[in-house]
Amino acid sequence: MQAENGATDLVRMVNIQKHYGKVESLKNVNLTIGRNEIVGLIGDNGAGKSTLIKVMTGVEAPTAGQLFIKGKEVEAGGHSVRQAQDFRIETVYQDKSLGEKQPLWRNFFVGRPITNRFGFIDVKAEKRIAEQIMKSTIGFRSRGISVDSTVGKLSGGERQGVAIGRAMHFDSDLIILDEPTVALAIKEVRRVLDFIQSIKAGGRSCIYIEHTLANVHEVADRLIVLDRGEIALDTPKSALSLSELTEFLLSLHRVRH
Amino acid sequence: MAMQASHDPSAASLRLSLSRRIFAVEGMAILAVFALLIAIFMVTAPQTFLSYRIYMTFLANVPPPMILALGLTFVVVAGEMDLSFPSIVAFSSYVFAILFKNYELTWLAFAAALMVGVILGFVNGLIVTQLGIPSMITTLATLFLYGGLVVIVSNGLTVAVPSVTDTVIHSVFAGRIGVLPVQALWALAVAVALWFILNRHRFGENVLFIGDNARVAHVVGIRVDREKLKIFTLMGLLSAFAGILLTLETTTYFSSQGMGYLLIVVASVFIGGTSIFGGSGTIVGTVVGALIVAIIEAGLVASGVQGFWTRFLIGVVFLVSVTLNMALEDPDRVPLFKKIRMRLRR
């Protein structure tokens, strides 16, 4: 039974725990991420969202529990960023995914450059592909921005677009977005939500971490609420309206106080 | 608006004025400064600067500090610092000189001296990545540690190797082709190789991203610690090479050898335009930066300015160029300029 499920799930976490010294950041988390679904991950600061992502992507090893990626058990600690990339899981961190002083084309391929066998980069090929991604996937046509522009010249929404476009180019099955709309203008938020829709349209899955409930409720297929290191809610979006979701989150606060 | 946006972007770049296109080439601005300095010194010290000899002296003396500055450019681009290179220069110089003097080894002495540089650089990298001490402090400590160690090993004595001039290795690394010092070609070769590594190799790209933002480098899958180890090791190797060139040219080892390079090498990198914040750097700039520092020293003396002014003036040029480079990167990074801009806007 479980093996069958495991083959279709992208990620399955079983009784995952993560402690930092005496602080229990994650207590017994069980969750699965399926194929071609957008999962909204909601929770207060300190609820354990970032830790969950770090464990899932191999930035940090869990203290206890099992992690399955595409049905294969991943050993704790033996799991690196590179390995997560091999599993086609890609994380887009708020402000931590792009090198500001580097040109766009380098940012697309950094960590996975197109090289010859001596390690020298094929700049022409990288620029050509980066340009294609910019035009087709991300839809950049704007004001004198080219693949040679540095990331520092882009708006916040465009940066998220570059990072998401990069993840799609490398055929990620699961793209994790860590608060992609923080500090963005309303128009820019719209673009990011469109990017997220395009992830789903491209047949991939997405974990979307977000504080603004209206945004996450609009695009997610499933909602997961994390509260003090535990999963408080895991439900299809259709089962919960935006106001019910808001009410539920407020009720968590009431319990706490 | 939409019509304008649909213009071919390459057409726009063609319309850029000629001067802007020239200055878009790496290191052009600093090259212009260098040309200006030479022009000035040709006026103030014509008897020196209009003859070829001074330039040949340059090409014999500049290669060691230039190679050091090229290696340091990588370190600085990665957002780190290395102050220990004068001691690595001395250490490798001692190893080369003593092996030649006692055993008449040449190529083996060369290999051993390079190996010493690799080891000392690697140790720097290990301390920075494993003990987590900032590299500025680490290498300040190893500047003393390595420098002290070589004095202990050599008993503080000078090793003279005048007969090294009769060897093949001397003609390969410090000989003359006509009047041209061969070491200049070696410095050029190192510069070309490092340019390709920084701008076209994945190692260079990793260095750029580590210096730009180490956390970004980590999340895109760059093994930051391993790359830093490589950077410090490369710096150690190049320091050793510079030390050997210096020993072959001067045919002597002495324990404070290389100490005089500390300021001028660091100055060369920053005068060249490499960012003090890491994440961007220019090899061409460093080459020209090293030439500028050397020509200021020689030019001032030849122009009749008293010798001890040179250090003062290199310090001034150092400060001015770092400020200007910072302002070029982002004018708001210089608080004074920012304040002035705000005033003007009001």
Identify the notable features of this structure and list them briefly.
heterodimer; A: 257 residues; alpha/beta; Rossmann fold; 25% strand; B: 346 residues; mainly alpha; ABC transporter involved in vitamin B12 uptake, BtuC; two-stranded antiparallel ribbon; 19 helices; 4 strands; 75% helix; globular
Would you summarize the structure shown here?
Chain A is an alpha/beta fold.
Map the helices and strands.
The complex is a heterodimer of chains A (257) and B (346).
Chain A: H1 2-8, E1 11-20, E2 23-33, E3 38-42, H2 49-57, E4 64-69, E5 72-74, H3 81-86, E6 89-93, H4 104-109, H5 123-135, H6 156-169, E7 174-178, H7 186-201, E8 205-209, H8 213-219, E9 222-227, E10 230-236, H9 242-256
Parallel strand pairs in A: 3-8, 3-9, 6-7, 7-8
Antiparallel strand pairs in A: 1-2, 1-4, 4-5, 9-10
Helix pairs in contact in A: 6-7
Chain B: H1 2-5, H2 9-15, H3 18-24, H4 28-44, H5 46-49, H6 52-61, H7 63-77, H8 85-103, H9 107-131, H10 135-154, E1 159-160, H11 168-174, E2 176-177, E3 180-181, H12 182-200, H13 202-212, H14 214-219, H15 224-250, E4 252-253, H16 261-271, H17 283-302, H18 309-329, H19 335-345
Antiparallel strand pairs in B: 1-4, 2-3
Walk me through the structure.
The complex is a heterodimer of chains A (257) and B (346). With 257 residues, chain A is α/β, with parallel strands linked by helices. Chain A has one domain (2-256): Rossmann fold, CATH 3.40.50. Chain A is built from 9 helices and 10 strands. The longest helix of chain A is centred in the C-terminal third of the chain and has 16 residues, at 186-201. Chain A starts with a helix and ends with a helix. Residues 1-6 of chain A have low confidence and may be disordered. In chain B, the strands form 2 sheets. Chain B has a two-stranded antiparallel ribbon. In chain B, strands 2-3 form a two-stranded antiparallel ribbon. Chain B has helices at residues 2-5, 9-15, 18-24, 28-44, 46-49, 52-61, 63-77, 85-103, 107-131, 135-154, 168-174, 182-200, 202-212, 214-219, 224-250, 261-271, 283-302, 309-329, 335-345, and strands spanning 159-160, 176-177, 180-181, 252-253. Chain B has a single domain, classed as ABC transporter involved in vitamin B12 uptake, BtuC. Chain B is built from 19 helices and 4 strands. The longest helix of chain B has 27 residues, at 224-250. The two termini of chain B are 31 Å apart. Chain B is 75% helix and 2% strand. Classes of the chains: A alpha/beta (257), B mainly alpha (346). Chain A binds chain B through residues 59, 80-82, 85, 91, 93, 96-102, 106, 110-113, 115, 118-121, 123, 141-144, 146, and chain B through 5-6, 9, 12, 196, 200-203, 205-206, 208-209, 212-213, 215-222, 275, 279-280.
